[in-house]
């Protein structure tokens, strides 16, 4: 049953991503923002059955004011939704000004629980799903302005120290 839900979620994510990709373009540079840094950290749980978490973070500095939307990302063979927040701590409104820095965060989960483990039912981890476009980077995210959708591939990602919970 979990496998069926997992495959259905991957198929749905691929279909949704493929629709805008008919007209979406892939970029490694942007006229709207610059990538300040990109990192990934792996966290191994201290509680038996808890998932292994890879946290991918990309900080973007905007060159001009715009409305900005980013909704999903792919790293390796996994995909999940993106979280957006402002580095300065202000509430994220979907609009940026010149010089604003936002942070995109992707959490990818790998289940460590045996199927049927009490308290961890249905936790199969992030969707295993190939990106909708071929790219050379380590992480790909989908973003847009108003009605336009694009993909951005980031190659330079710094791996931070692995965290092992006690």
Keywords:
166 residues; 11-stranded mixed β-sheet; 12% helix; mainly beta; 1 helix; 13 strands; two-stranded antiparallel sheet
Describe the fold and architecture.
The strands form two sheets. Strands 1, 2, 3, 5, 6, 8, 9, 10, 11, 12 and 13 form an eleven-stranded mixed β-sheet that branches. This protein has 166 residues and is mainly beta. The radius of gyration is 17 Å and the shape is globular. The chain has one helix spanning 2-21; strands spanning 25-27, 33-44, 52-62, 66-67, 69-75, 78-86, 95-96, 101-110, 127-128, 139-145, 148-154, 158-159, 163-164. It has one helix and 13 strands; from the N terminus they run αβββββββββββββ.
Class derived from helix and strand content: mainly beta
Number of strands: 13
Shape: globular
Q: How far apart, in Å, are the first and last alpha carbons?
A: 33 Å
Radius of gyration: 17 Å
The helicity comes to: 10-25%
Quick one: biggest sheet? 11 strands, mixed
Instruction: Please tell me the overall pLDDT.
Output: 84
SS element count, helices: 1
pLDDT < 50 stretches: 1-9, 11-22
The SSE string, one letter per element, is HEEEEEEEEEEEEE
**Strand content bin:** over 45%
